[in-house]
Design goal:
three-stranded antiparallel beta sheet; elongated; ATP-binding; Glutamyl-tRNA Synthetase, domain 3; single chain; about 50% helix; mainly alpha; cytoplasm; 4 domains; about 475 residues; Rossmann fold
């Protein structure tokens, strides 16, 4: 009988949820959903000096915003230190680990000797089979695992294949420090075992750790979970991902106006693929996700591709749903707080009516808000440099004629009726439509770029539109 799949995401709360961590969480979440299993969340907060409550809160908030939920309460690794110590001592009783009383001076001498002989620095095992009765009274011991000295440890990885590690390179590593606190290597194994984790999906920077952790699993007689080590994300130039490439916290992507669905889609495609499919719904990804389809090579982060994917999701959203998401995101967008203060029922209705035109031009919520600025502008409008230039000279006379033509449009005010009126006016005065539409756009929005000018007229309504045109003429 197949066991229920249990994955886990285990971030360290020493900073924000960065984009690589978000992708790891997504892969764990997708595989759990795909198999009808569960994803657990463990906060690896054993580094008490660097771990903060604020970082933990940022990680939970980032996961929640991305729509990646987890089963049960988050587990604190630091809160399980007694259990970790219990297993370290159990390994000593089993003869699989031992107390090591080597002093710091002795360890430094070992390192110096190894370097002088051109060898990697390794603990030499001097307390491995020594009688504890010889222990010095003034040294608090660590506990080290008795790593196998011959042969190799093989990690059967679902992404990387069979990865072989010569045991001579793994040495007798520490699992419990002299102050009785566990090392990361021990804590991870104990927690994954106790939490019932069946599949470990994490970055391939943990591949060497997997060999050491496999030794602990076997020493305890525990089943080794399925391992899947995914390549890291690189920048477009192939270098390690840095802030200039996009190695930012998830909250930064929210502030840039990316949609959770758009970012999920893009992150899923960073190192995993399903044929030639680029645009995927969350349901698609859950249905298609298999660990074996993860690429072995590093993925390259590309903001232009992210924007393209995000724009597709943005345009595909229902207007009412998109409006709700935009309003919820306003506190995080530049200038969004000021818009939120002025978003009364009337402006909300105007914004909803404007969305079909707005979203065709936008790739992010930030761009959407930028092109919607005209809805929240107070009269008289302030004009940017290009718009002000458009309204000089003969343009004011053109604008006055356009205003008269629009005043003739009565209560049947719409994009179609205002367009018909302006087209008739342009023909009468012998102007191309653009020669009338451009100053009209500047008068209505204060800028030279906006959604279609007749859509703007329709959304603003008759009174506001004529008022703004009159202000520009004056």
């Amino acid at each position: 009988m197949n066991k229920t799949v249990v994955t886990r995401f285990a971030p360290s709360p020493t900073g924000y949820l960065h984009i690589g961590g978000a992708r790891t969480a997504l892969f764990n979440w997708l595989y759990a959903r795909h198999t009808g299993g569960r994803m657990l969340l463990r906060i690896e907060d054993t580094d008490r000096e660097r771990s903060t409550d604020a970082a933990t809160a940022a990680i939970l908030d980032g996961l929640a915003w991305l729509g990646l939920d987890w089963h049960g309460e988050p587990v604190s690794q630091a809160g399980r230190a007694d259990r970790h110590r219990e297993i370290a001592e159990e390994l000593v009783r089993r003869g699989e680990a031992y107390y090591c009383y080597a002093s710091q001076a002795e360890l430094e001498t070992m390192r110096e000797t190894a370097r002088a002989e051109g060898r990697p620095p390794r603990y030499d095992g001097r307390w491995r089979d020594r009688d504890p009765a010889e222990a010095p009274a003034d040294v608090s011991p660590v506990i080290r695992v008795k790593a196998p000295r011959e042969g190799e440890t093989v990690v059967a990885d679902r992404v990387q294949g069979a990865v072989r590690f010569p045991n001579k390179d793994l040495d007798d590593f520490v699992i419990l420090r002299s102050d009785k606190t566990p090392t990361y290597m021990l804590a991870v194994v104990v927690d994954d075992h106790d939490m019932g984790v069946t599949h470990i999906i994490r970055g391939d920077d943990h591949l060497t750790n997997a060999a050491r952790q496999t030794i602990i699993y076997r020493a305890m007689g525990w089943e080794v979970p399925v391992m899947a080590h995914i390549p890291l994300i690189h920048g477009p130039d192939g270098a390690k991902l840095s802030k200039r490439h996009g190695a930012l916290g998830v909250e930064a992507y929210r502030a840039m106006g990316y949609l959770p669905a758009g970012l999920r889609n893009y992150l899923a495609r960073l190192g995993w693929s399903h044929g030639d499919d680029e645009i995927m719904s969350t349901e698609d990804m859950i249905g298609w996700f298999e660990i074996e389809d993860i690429n072995k090579g590093a993925a390259r982060f590309d903001f232009k591709k992210l924007e393209a994917v995000n724009g597709h999701h943005l345009r595909g959203m229902a207007d009412a749903e998109l409006l709700d998401l935009l309003v919820a995101t306003l506190p995080y967008l530049e200038g969004g707080a000021a818009v939120a203060e002025r978003l009364d029922a009337a402006r909300r209705s105007m914004l909803l009516a404007a969305l079909p035109g707005l979203k065709e031009r936008a790739k992010t919520l930030a761009e959407l808000l930028e092109t919607a600025h005209y809805l929240f502008a107070e009269r008289p409008l302030s004009f940017d440099q290009k718009a002000a230039a458009l309204l000089e000279g003969p343009a004011r006379q053109t604008l006055a004629g356009a205003k008269t033509a629009l005043e003739a449009v009565g209560e049947d005010w719409s994009a179609a009726t205002t367009e018909a009126a302006i087209r008739r006016f342009a023909e009468e005065v012998g102007l191309k439509l653009g020669a009338v539409a451009q100053p009209l756009r500047a008068a209505l929005t204060g800028r030279t770029v906006s959604p279609g000018v007749f859509d703007v007229l329709a959304v603003l309504g008759r009174g506001e539109s004529l008022g703004r045109i009159g202000d520009a003429i004056a």
